[in-house]
Design brief:
single chain; 575 residues; mainly alpha; 2 domains; 3 strands; disordered N terminus
Amino acid sequence: MLRLAAGFCVLALLAAPSPCSAIADGSTSFAALAAAFIADSQRLEPVAADYAGVTTYSDALPDRSESGHEREIAAMRAWRARFAAAPAVSDANTAADRRTVLDTIDQTLIENETVAGWRHDPASYVGDLGAAFFLVATRPGESADRRFSHIARRLTQVPRFVDAAIANLVDASKPSDALASSQLGGTIAFVAALERGDRTASPVVRARISAALPTALAALHRFRAFLDGPLRAKATRDPRIGRAAYDRLFRVTIGTDATPEELAARARERIAATRAAMLTVAEPVFAAQFPGRIVTATGDARIQAIVGAVLDERAKHHTTRDGFIAAARAAVAETEGFLRATHAIALPRPETLRVRRTPAYEAGVTGASAETAGPYAPPNAPSYYNVDPPSGDAAAIDSQLREDNDDVMRILTIHEAVPGHYVQLRYANRNPSIVRRILGNGSFIEGWAVWTEGFMLDQGFRDGDAGLRLAQLKWRLREATNALLDIEYHAGALSHDEAIRMLVHDAFQEKAEAEGKWHRLQLSYVQLSSYFAGLDAIERAENASPLDQRAFAKRLLDMGSVEPRSIPALLAAGG
């Protein structure tokens, strides 16, 4: 979420030339406006600035008071008016960036005024707190004294931040309250350990940490008591945001010209086509694995019997819970080795990817994620492929390991790491457009990662392994089903049982994975549609392009994280 205040510009943040002076002398340059807008957002969203690699505001926590919220809305309206009043642009690159900025502002206004997560989503506050300390404490390229001096100042602001959160939150959904409490436990543990942090920090700085910790920890425990007590008693809110809010957010968040209804129709068509393709791949594998077994069923029943049997057999080959992170590392090494050998996509330099367990303040939502160093971070700053080993009872762990079997671990790694999110976001970091470096469109980012799942196999990864192709097609089902679930849940009345049937029957997912997706539906909105929406736009552009697959991939990487609706014009313009 961007939080802006009109009329402020910070030259220290910008790679663009002197935007403040351009505005002061009456220039209506889009580049100057965009640079000032982004600089403003980083001042008022210091944690977002940390993610981008900007250290200027690492002493501060964001102002989450009601008055701060009101200032944000007023500033957003002022910024939107300034962009809307600027002269029209003709070149495709600037037009794409202008649309991104306007949609970003509109998205933030809808989030604040209509969805109003600041009144109902405690996990958003917990996410800010966790990142505020974790990102600075683990940041490369700064001395321990500098990092822990920032942390000491932030610790003194925790009580004010917690007071604002408690004052703002009027209710919550049960899943959001439970997630917030769980993640806050991880944050409390991390903050409590700061006193035993980097011993290369000077005694003076360590003393400041020790002095600030008791009050900060008391505030964090007070926040958790509020989550587990008064707020939990009011955690009866429906997680669905409703059709009106969903339709408005979809338009500005996804960045395509398709409506939710049109995307849902395309997703249904994709599911049917993908299930048919899976049968074609599975039939010879089935015949080899189960000689003499005859399936007389036709249509959907035949798909279910043959594809289901082959997937069930492949699911038996998986790592253990304790070996989960090591398996992810091995999958990264394999995909990187393939790209180095084939040059299908050039890996970014220097290579900085690391695999780790998801930090506790972020865990419990997606199972795996990418966290790429921001555009202002040092060139050698690490990027992370975060993974959550399965948890729960023995049956749940076994179910999740079957879902994340050896085939799926490779597809997951392609998507999250190489050449998916890690590679694409490293390329985006060096895009000449400040808009694309900072305000990257999530649908493009997810669409690229999905597209590369098929790209790698098309380029010969693992020599045409039919089982791996079946896993990749299963993920195509997953991505199209994600969109259907998101639309039909938040803009409709999709029930738990209907969702689980779609996931387990139609998309061949294990029960643990299906239940996890239902949980995620209740914690997010629109984002689950972004995978298929981005893929759909990229594939349509690819089908209309004369470029071969590798050249097309390079053009997408050079394009940056644009809205999918802008891809055709940028391809035509060479941008």
